[in-house]
Amino acid sequence: MIYPRIVFIILFLISYTAATLDGYEGPKLKTYTHAQFQDYWYNHGAEISRFDLRQMRYGEIHDGDAVLIFVTEKMNPDIQIKTQMNLNESTY
Questions:
Q1: Residue 75's pLDDT is what?
Q2: DSSP secondary structure code for residue 43 in this structure
């Protein structure tokens, strides 16, 4: 019977993998202060990211570009639209 051997091998690999991952904390991420976060994201600028795109349409793969433009602007929470602001303002 080959099935008990396969089951044993699978259980062994699962237990071995779990034992080797014990204590793994993952990558260390850099943390930022609130002031550093505001200096980066609230500087009245924009961040542009470009990605290669492969998209399936009509049964064929088409290559292209995907572009993400991220802009942080002051919002009026009452009416949920961008507020008019002076560029010298730096409070959010």
A1: 77
A2: S
Cβ atoms < 10 Å from Cβ of 65: 8
How does strand 75-76 pair with strand 81-82?
Answer: antiparallel
Could you give the percent of the chain with pLDDT greater than 70?
Answer: 79
10 Å Cβ neighbour count for 74? 13
Tell me the two tokens of residue 73: 């602007």
**Residue 60, pLDDT above cutoff 90:** yes
pLDDT above 90 covers a percentage of the chain that reads 18
Query: How far is C-alpha 62 from the chain's CA centre?
Result: 24
Instruction: Please state, in angstroms and as integers, the Cα–Cα distance from residue 92 to each residue in 37, 51, 58, 66, 70, following that order.
Output: 12, 30, 46, 30, 17
Nearest to 2, CA basis, from 10, 33, 48, 40 = 10
Distance CA 91, CA 88 (A): 9
Q: Where are the domains of the chain?
A: 43-84
